[in-house]
Amino acid sequence: MLGKKELQGSWEELTNTLNAMFKNGKKKSVDSWKTTWRDTKTKVSNKVTSLKKNRAATGNKPNDIVLTERDKKIIDLIGHEYFESLATVPDSIPEEFVSWLLTVLRD
Prior knowledge:
This is Regulatory protein zeste. By secondary structure, this protein is mainly alpha-helical. The chain has helices spanning 4-21, 30-56, 69-78, 95-106.
């Protein structure tokens, strides 16, 4: 585990890198980028939860929720353990993500 100072230093480095990527935008603070990351993880988590709920529902209704490539990268980055509480559904990975994951693992 990183110490508090090392972790803060990592966030500062990440903040500088992200702010440099968006030259025309307003510069964000470390706390602002932390909030952005937390909110992004929450949105993806909610999307995965909705996908699972819709897949488990009866009635064979079409599922209009689609994981974007960005969503899939976030899932891969934070790990499936983050979504472990969703594992009560028999197939814990959305179908559209399985083929993408297999492609990544083969490369």
